[in-house]
Recover the amino acids of this structure.
């Protein structure tokens, strides 16, 4: 499994695209594969603020529920409502169509790792 | 991965089929192959094969076999003619469940008990501890038998692919919950018309040595596909079949668990009878099992608390997204006055109250007969 090099990652299996003060966040293809069929997604509303490392939502498969963790402190400016309606599509296109939300942030305060570091991390986890 | 998990004779085949496996009841079992939703649909629409070799097989025989089973179960075993089976349970003296199980009558004084994997050793020890005074032989053959469940509207024609013409005729004559001996690659096993999915189906008992050949043959020659325990759980939950350890255990009675139909007070004395009678008559408090449908977005899971306003009235025993019904729901054990069909209650889903409505049980009408 390969991970886009232009993205940052967290050890909680989120990916982050950083672009001039905005961060778009999703769940990695690896995590989606581990979860299996996603049957429910609970996301915050635009305007809500979260600290780095706090939970901002949940993702549920038929068997388990996992928390989603905010990679960096910020305020939600966009939520992908299409993702909640097309849950099967998440695993097919995790890094583009599968984005969950965009936040505005002022500084990169979370523990973000590179694609290579994330790859090593999940290899150790298995 | 948990240590010391047992594996079934089909384990290497599961790995070849790229199953995701996980610990269940002390066994490393396939959870899914292509995905829970696709597997669930495959069973409802066509046919699925489940490795249920982790289930336990205990043979009870001897002149007192019937007397022994009558006292230590809730259903009326005397109603079984040779070749019949029934859903039943082993009660505690306090009217809890030691386990739920299927009992088949194989001969005049010979019964096969099919018990839950996680309880197989406990059940056997329980029966052993209660056999004094009975002329009965207990034989735990769990380690020698494999079991494959063949479930779905096409299950009969799929199963026929591994049966002789003579056995096909025997299997065609089986009524729901009946059992007959059948040959598998020259070895004697059993075919029962039962299941845990709510679909027409069979559970076949195979000597370990032929299990992999039978499973592989069914995959190769029929439209049946392998199904993991993930879909097994969503299928059984739609049909509101109980799962030991989730829906009931030693602290829940058969009356509370919604299987009063299987409690035969008219059969004579049995363990836990007086308490179950008092529960049924309303002389002592008893909860009740209901099915629910979530009206809010979200999924309720096992162990989540249920409220009417500030009053806690019960707990979710099983909850999931239900693929055939396309909504989230499940089963809950609630106080007797906690609501009727059509009433609503609230479930605490990780700190958020979600509205759910009590609906008819089962959630999905079984297609077994």
């Amino acid at each position: 499994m390969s991970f886009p090099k232009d993205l940052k990652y967290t050890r909680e299996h989120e990916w982050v695209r950083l672009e001039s003060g905005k961060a778009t966040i999703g769940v990695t293809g690896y995590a989606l594969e581990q979860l299996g069929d996603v049957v429910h997604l609970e996301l915050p509303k635009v305007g809500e603020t979260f600290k780095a490392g706090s939970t901002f939502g949940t993702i549920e498969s038929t068997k388990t529920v996992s928390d989603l963790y905010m990679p960096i402190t910020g305020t939600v400016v966009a939520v992908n409502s299409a993702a909640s309606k097309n849950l099967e599509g998440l695993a097919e296109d995790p890094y583009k169509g599968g984005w969950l939300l965009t936040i505005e942030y002022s500084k990169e305060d979370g523990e973000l790792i590179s694609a290579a570091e994330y790859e090593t991390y999940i290899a150790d986890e298995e | 991965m948990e240590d010391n998990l047992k594996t079934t004779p089909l384990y290497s085949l599961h790995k070849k089929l790229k199953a995701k496996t996980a610990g269940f009841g002390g066994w490393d079992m396939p959870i899914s192959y292509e995905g829970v939703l696709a597997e669930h649909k495959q069973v409802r629409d066509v046919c699925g094969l489940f490795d249920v070799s982790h289930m336990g097989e205990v043979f009870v025989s001897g002149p007192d076999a019937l007397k022994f089973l009558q006292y230590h179960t809730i259903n009326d075993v005397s109603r079984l003619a040779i070749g019949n089976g029934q859903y039943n349970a082993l009660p505690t003296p306090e009217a809890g469940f030691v386990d739920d199980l299927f009992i088949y009558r194989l001969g005049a004084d010979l019964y096969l008990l099919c018990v839950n994997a996680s309880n197989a050793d406990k059940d056997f020890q329980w029966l052993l501890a209660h056999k004094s005074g009975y002329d009965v032989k207990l034989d735990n053959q769990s380690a020698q038998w494999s079991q494959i469940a063949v479930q779905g509207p096409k299950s009969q024609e799929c199963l026929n692919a591994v049966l002789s013409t003579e056995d096909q005729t025997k299997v065609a004559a089986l009524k729901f919950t009946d059992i007959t001996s059948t040959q598998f690659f020259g070895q004697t096993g059993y075919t029962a018309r039962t299941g845990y999915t709510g679909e027409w189906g069979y559970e076949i008992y195979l000597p370990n040595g032929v299990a992999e050949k039978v499973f592989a043959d069914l995959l190769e020659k029929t439209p049946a596909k392998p199904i993991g325990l993930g879909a097994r759980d969503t299928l059984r939950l739609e049909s509101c079949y109980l799962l030991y350890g989730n829906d009931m255990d030693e602290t829940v009675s058969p009356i509370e668990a919604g299987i009063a139909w299987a409690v035969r007070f008219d059969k004579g004395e049995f363990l836990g009878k007086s308490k179950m009678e008092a529960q049924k008559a309303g002389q002592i408090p008893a909860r009740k099992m209901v099915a629910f449908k979530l009206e809010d977005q979200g999924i309720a899971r096992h162990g989540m608390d249920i409220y009417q306003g500030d009053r806690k009235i019960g707990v979710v025993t099983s909850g999931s997204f239900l693929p055939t019904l396309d909504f989230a729901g499940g089963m809950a054990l609630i106080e007797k006055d906690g609501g009727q069909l059509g009433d609503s209650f609230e479930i605490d889903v990780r700190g958020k109250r979600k509205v759910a409505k009590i609906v008819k049980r089962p959630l999905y009408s079984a297609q077994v007969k």
